[in-house]
Design goal:
Blueprint: E1 5-10, H1 14-25, E2 29-35, H2 39-49, E3 54-55, H3 58-64, E4 69-72, H4 79-88, E5 93-96, H5 104-117, E6 120-123, H6 131-141, E7 148-155, H7 159-173, E8 179-187, E9 201-208, E10 213-219, E11 235-241, E12 244-249, E13 253-258, E14 261-265, H8 271-287, H9 297-316, E15 320-321, H10 330-337, H11 351-354
Parallel strand pairs: 1-2, 1-4, 2-3, 4-5, 5-6, 7-10
Antiparallel strand pairs: 7-11, 8-9, 8-15, 9-10, 11-12, 12-13, 13-14
Helix pairs in contact: 1-8, 4-5, 7-9, 9-10
């Protein structure tokens, strides 16, 4: 019989509850504990999930139950203390939400702690489990585009919500080749006060070691994706090659044109469809060291470095080499650097968030 892994979850908002439901639905996992500072969320969660031990303090949870997986789905301001708790818990794997950290200094500290502990970790870049994302990647990887020279991604949501996703999937489309340098520009200070603090708009270039160029735009100035109605899913990601292109729209399927003609298909971001594969591969990795999770921390950290390097390019000007060799507080530096003038919009609907 395959092993069953005990899971404790901290944070039971929308994403935490999605994780809890999916872990519970998978017979490879036992939902052993739930934690949230809001008792009402715990009551709502147990009404949905059944009689599971609940806690309002994460320290009490890790002392009260033995865990194999420590999962947290909280606002990004508490990443580092929860990583420490996850290590203290004795869990074999820590699963947590993007962004990996809010600054490169925090991200570097998290990396040092995880490297020293030997604990596995995964970051929830779960969009890649959508059938439309997988179809686009399959076409790109097949060689049907000829020599891929450009990968690109845009999103109307702001950096700490969306750029981590864009970079992760562009790296996937490019075979997870390491990046050498980036260059970027940004505008708008409004979202620096958000719970996911970010410039209102950032756009930049990524130069990968294989010569492929990445282009990203995220936030108020990002272009429309008119094929998609729901604002948060107005994300376009794809690859251009010498013999065609393939792209995926987060809320609007996939399409490709190659020397064999045009093709397209449906698909839309859906937690109920995207989360099970992400959760199942956690069990696979715990079963077998060789079955490394696609959303593993080391890969996600390379994407995080790209994101922070883009911010540093805004702050310092010019190109920024990768990997980063030291940590910094990019958010504080962006607050000091960005001028206090209104951001210009890429489409009228953006005014609701960035006006």
């Amino acid at each position: 019989m395959p092993a069953t892994y005990r899971v404790g979850i901290v944070g039971l908002g929308k994403r935490g509850l999605s994780h809890a439901v999916t872990f519970k639905a998978n017979p490879r996992f036992e939902l052993a504990g739930l934690c949230d500072v809001d008792p009402a969320r715990l009551t709502a969660a147990t009404a949905k999930l059944g009689a599971i031990p609940v806690f309002t303090d994460a320290q009490a949870m890790i002392r009260g139950i033995k865990l194999d997986v420590f999962c947290f789905c909280t606002l990004p301001k508490v990443r580092l203390p929860l990583i420490r708790l996850g290590i203290e818990s004795g869990a074999r794997l820590i699963a947590f939400e993007k962004p990996l950290a809010l600054t490169s200094a925090e991200g570097l500290e998290i990396k040092k702690l995880l490297d020293a502990s030997g604990i596995k970790a995964v970051i929830s870049h779960q969009h890649r489990y959508g059938a439309h994302y997988r179809k686009a990647q399959e076409i790109i990887a097949s060689g049907a585009l000829g020599r891929v020279h450009t990968v690109y991604g845009t999103a109307t949501g702001w950096l700490m919500h969306m750029l981590s996703h864009l970079i992760d999937y562009l790296r996937w489309f490019n075979g997870n080749v390491e990046a050498c340098w980036v260059m970027a520009q940004a505008a708008g200070r409004g979202k620096l006060a958000d719970a996911h603090p970010s410039p209102d708009y950032i756009a930049g270039f990524i130069h990968f070691a294989n010569g492929v160029r990445g282009i990203v735009e995220c936030g108020a100035g990002a272009p429309d994706v008119p094929e998609v109605d729901y604002w948060w899913r107005k994300c376009r990601l794809g690859a251009l090659g010498t013999e065609g292109f393939a792209e995926v729209l987060t809320g609007g399927g996939w399409r490709a044109v190659t020397k064999n003609g045009a093709q397209s298909g449906a698909g839309c971001m859906n937690y109920e469809l995207d989360m099970p594969g992400y959760i199942l591969e956690i069990a696979d990795w715990l079963d077998d060291e060789r079955k490394v999770h696609p959303c593993n921390f080391q890969s996600a950290y390379q994407g995080f470095e790209i994101m922070m390097a883009l911010c540093r390019s805004v702050i310092e000007g010019g190109q920024v080499a990768l990997p980063l060799t030291s940590g910094a507080d990019e958010l504080a530096q962006l607050r000091a650097k960005l001028p206090a003038k209104p951001v210009l919009l890429g489409l009228p609907q953006n005014a609701k968030e960035y006006g």
